[in-house]
Design brief:
This protein has 3 helices and 7 strands. By secondary structure, it is α+β, with helices and mostly antiparallel strands.
């Protein structure tokens, strides 16, 4: 599945691993997590009508106690995914596309939150 391939792609990067270890979660982060960490989920999943191509949009959420950590992690993720091509977990990736990001501070949890959107275009057959 594409979400597992995306998670594995991020987890295999040594520089990102130095920043968040293995704290990459699909959809929900666990209760009482160690920060910084990331969570991600599929926002949409358009598929080609005449060609076997899917282009789901994923939101990758970065959670940290320091603003600088969110920015550093976001920059690393962008370097990993933007323009990335090849085979991820047996899936032929046509291209990773950075779309947008926004920053937030959650005063109730005292966490910095940076959400970034990526489209992962892949052959779906």
């Amino acid at each position: 599945m594409i979400y597992k391939a995306l998670k594995d792609k991020l987890a295999s990067d040594n520089e990102l691993k130095k920043l968040i270890n293995d704290r990459i979660y699909y959809v929900n982060i666990p209760q009482n997590p160690i920060y910084p960490c990331i969570s991600f989920y599929r926002v949409s999943n358009p598929r080609g009508h005449l060609v076997d191509v899917s282009s789901p949009r994923f939101q990758i959420d970065i959670w940290a106690k320091k603003y600088s950590e969110t920015v550093e992690i976001a920059n690393r993720i962008r370097r990993i995914l933007q323009g990335s091509k090849g085979v991820w977990g047996g899936i032929s990736i046509i291209q990773g596309v950075y779309m947008n990001e926004f920053e937030d501070y959650e005063s109730d949890t005292k966490l910095y939150h940076l959400a970034a959107d990526y489209r992962i275009i892949y052959k779906d057959y």
